[in-house]
Specification:
The chain is of the alpha/beta class. It is 35% helix and 18% strand. The chain has one domain. β8, α8 and β9 form a beta-alpha-beta unit. It holds the Pfam family H2O2_YaaD.
């Protein structure tokens, strides 16, 4: 079983690894596209106003642009240490075993799909970003001028995920799932339930619940083969989970 996570906008600074080496990353077939995007981000960083517009940044976030300028020279850190925030706090990757960390993948707007232990630099590029001058479909309404990254990644990530032999549990948020839908993957939505039984979809707080679920899945010795197996694993761990479709699960939490 493999668990696919979204990245985070926030990323830890620094690192002890050598500068970016694409050959050190999982899924080497993605390296040509990775190189194109890294080179484009480095070039874009030379134009600070254009970077702000393309990446939806304010002047107070110019340090993010500086990170992009140094993508080829800055130190790296394992992906699960690089990404920070609510989901990764709940996941607590530092306390996971090496085997558990190897079951975790991260979908990145810059690198496509990386293993949890892959060494990557700090960067800024979101799933909904659009780099100026890219040829292809136009970006979604509300994004910056340019073209959607899903135009670039979808033809590569969809077949890659389809070829995975293990069951895939897809915990990505919408913009990252759109980069390369994983057909047949088990998904998990989070709903909050009020005392009267009414439910609403959990938005920001769902990251914590998904991080906890990812930890349980990666740490388990069980290897479910379908949504029913994932449901049983999570229920046995004390979570309230329901099946909402052949491949869809819902985690119900109190409001």
């Amino acid at each position: 079983m493999l668990v696919v996570l979204p990245p985070s906008e926030t990323k830890a600074a620094g690192g002890r690894g050598r500068p970016l080496d694409l050959d050190a990353l999982s899924f080497p077939s993605l390296n040509p596209t990775r190189k194109v995007l890294v080179d484009e981000l480095v070039a874009l960083a030379a134009d600070v106003p254009a970077s702000r517009a393309a990446l939806d940044l304010s002047e107070r976030q110019d340090d993010e642009i500086a990170r992009n300028a140094a993508l080829w020279t800055s130190p790296t850190a394992p992906a699960l240490r690089r990404y920070t925030g609510v989901l990764y706090d709940a996941l607590d990757p530092a306390s996971l075993t090496p085997a558990a960390r190897r079951r975790l993948l991260v979908c990145s707007a810059l690198f496509g799909l990386v293993g949890g232990t892959d060494p990557i630099p700090a960067y800024r590029l979101s799933g909904g970003s659009a780099l100026p001058g890219r040829a292809g479909d136009t970006a979604p309404q509300g994004s910056s001028t340019g073209t959607s990254l899903r135009t670039l990644w979808r033809p590569e990530l969809m077949p890659l995920l389809a070829e995975v032999d293990d069951l895939v549990v897809d915990l990505r948020s919408g913009p990252y799932a759109a980069l390369g839908p994983a057909r047949g993957a088990v998904t998990l939505d989070v709903h909050s339930e009020a005392a009267d039984g009414s439910r609403t979809v959990v938005s920001h707080a769902n990251k914590s619940h998904k991080g906890h679920a990812a930890r349980l899945l990666a740490s388990s010795r069980r290897r479910p083969r379908d949504a029913g197996g994932v449901l049983a694993l999570l229920r046995d761990a004390g979570l309230r989970v329901e099946q909402a479709g052949e491949h869809a699960l819902v985690l119900v939490v109190p409001r």
